[in-house]
């Protein structure tokens, strides 16, 4: 799928005309718009891509997506073949786009559909390849439909459906969609799926102590105890931009490899990706390191957005009690307060985040299934699953560490 099959898929949708048309000025004939699959994000104009993506979400930026491609973190052998769907005007202007990938497996997505794949294949179908609309290896919310005008949103989704139908792909999936875009997927007839992450919300805290004041006394004491134990004997530094050297990346790469090997069998990102993050996105990267006698022993890598801090990767060379919580959660809170950010997204799963001030928050994905019978089965499953997610969120929401008299939360 990585080479010849991907090229064939692109050729089958290239030059198809969108149903929607654009009229530039009164009295001028309507110009047809062209929907196509590009060979890569890097093959497109970076300035035009970023004009559509905006500056708030680092994972939709041209830099991040091309780093994934150029570093080999997506591409041959990874199960991710870049196939961005774009809409252009007749003169080649980029009007809308979405980062999409041909997937030969379900690795690196964090919205689990392995049971769907197994069921479909047991019934005689072929689940892979499928189309994935996402930031690769990144369970962070953000826009998935990038456009100059909302009227192009449905055309993007129809193009994804055409890509599937024209090539015999089973399905298309958009993951970690920002809530504002959910109605666009729902209007297009895509099925919605919810799950739970744990996010920290900044309620105008002026300091970490201000945040602690919102917690119940017992929880507040527990956090202080954890921080004291984690910080004992280590120095913690925050590094961005030119402050991050290749030696820092070498150390963090060792941490990341250890964590990746334990969680996924092998790391998703290549070593080159981290160098490129520093070179091209340094001002949007926050690397937090714990040093013992000047040597890094643990680290957490974050990306800085316009309104959120996104915790992405963590690792260590030796275990130290509570150091994971300190670097990934408490230091992230410190950084968000200092920058005036609205929230911290600390990644997928992790109920242990709850007692540390991270609250249960719904995340969303949208799914289009080609086979009508399979689509009905998935729809029934999603309806029952959503009921369970609602119950889980209510249960977890009652167990946050905030004061229960209402003074901790508005």
Could you walk me through the main structural features you see in this protein, from its secondary elements to its overall organization?
The chain is of the alpha+beta class and 410 residues long. The chain has 2 domains: 4-189, Aminopeptidase (3-Layer(aba) Sandwich); 199-359, 3-Layer(aba) Sandwich (Aminopeptidase). Helix content is 37%, strand content 24%. The chain has helices spanning 4-13, 46-53, 62-70, 114-122, 153-167, 182-187, 208-212, 217-231, 246-264, 271-281, 323-339, 372-397, and strands at residues 16-22, 31-37, 80-82, 85-88, 94-98, 100-103, 130-133, 146-147, 171-175, 191-201, 235-239, 285-292, 295-304, 308-316, 343-345, 359-369. The strands form 2 sheets. Strands 3-6-7-9-16-10-15-14-13-12-11 form an 11-stranded mixed β-sheet, with helices on both faces. A hairpin with a 2-residue loop joins strand 12 (285-292) and strand 13 (295-304). Helix 3 (62-70) packs antiparallel against helix 10 and helix 8 (217-231) crosses helix 11. The longest helix has 26 residues, at 372-397. It is globular and about 60 Å long. The N and C termini lie far apart (51 Å).
């Amino acid at each position: 799928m990585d080479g010849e099959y991907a090229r064939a898929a692109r050729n089958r949708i290239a030059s198809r005309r969108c149903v929607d048309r654009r009229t530039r000025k009164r009295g001028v004939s309507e110009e047809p718009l062209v929907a196509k699959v590009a060979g890569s994000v890097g093959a497109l104009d970076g300035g035009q891509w970023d004009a559509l993506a905006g500056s708030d979400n680092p994972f939709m930026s041209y830099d991040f997506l091309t780093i994934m491609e150029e570093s080999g973190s997506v591409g041959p052998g990874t199960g991710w073949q870049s196939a961005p769907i774009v809409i252009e005007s007749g003169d080649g202007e980029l009007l809308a786009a979405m980062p999409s990938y041909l997937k030969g497996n379900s690795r690196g997505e964090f919205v689990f559909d392995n049971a769907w794949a197994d069921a479909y294949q047991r019934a005689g179908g072929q689940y892979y390849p499928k189309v994935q609309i996402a930031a690769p290896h990144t369970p962070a919310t953000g826009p998935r439909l990038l456009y100059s005008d909302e009227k192009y949103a449905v055309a993007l989704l129809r193009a994804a459906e055409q890509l599937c139908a024209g090539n015999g792909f089973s399905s298309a999936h958009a993951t970690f969609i920002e809530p504002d875009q959910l109605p666009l997927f729902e209007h297009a007839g895509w099925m919605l799926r919810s799950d739970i992450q744990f996010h920290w919300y900044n309620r105008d805290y002026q300091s970490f102590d201000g945040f602690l004041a919102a917690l119940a006394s017992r929880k507040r004491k527990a956090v202080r105890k954890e921080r004291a134990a984690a910080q004992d004997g280590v120095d913690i530094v925050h590094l961005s931009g030119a402050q991050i050297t290749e030696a820092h990346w070498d150390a963090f790469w060792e941490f990341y490899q250890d964590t990746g090997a334990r969680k996924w069998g092998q790391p998703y990102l290549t070593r080159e990706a981290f160098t490129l993050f520093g070179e091209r996105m340094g001002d949007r990267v926050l690397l937090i390191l714990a040093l013992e006698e000047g040597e890094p022993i643990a680290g957490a890598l974050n990306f800085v957005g316009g309104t959120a801090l996104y915790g992405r990767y963590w690792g260590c060379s030796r275990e130290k009690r509570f150091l994971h919580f300190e670097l990934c959660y408490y230091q992230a809170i410190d950084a968000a307060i200092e920058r005036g950010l609205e929230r911290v997204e600390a990644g997928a799963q992790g109920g242990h985040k709850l007692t540390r001030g991270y609250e249960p928050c719904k995340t969303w994905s949208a799914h289009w299934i080609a086979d009508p019978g399979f689509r009905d089965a998935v729809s029934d499953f999603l309806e029952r699953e959503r009921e369970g997610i609602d119950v889980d969120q209510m249960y977890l929401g009652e167990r946050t560490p905030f004061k229960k008299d209402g003074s901790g939360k508005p």
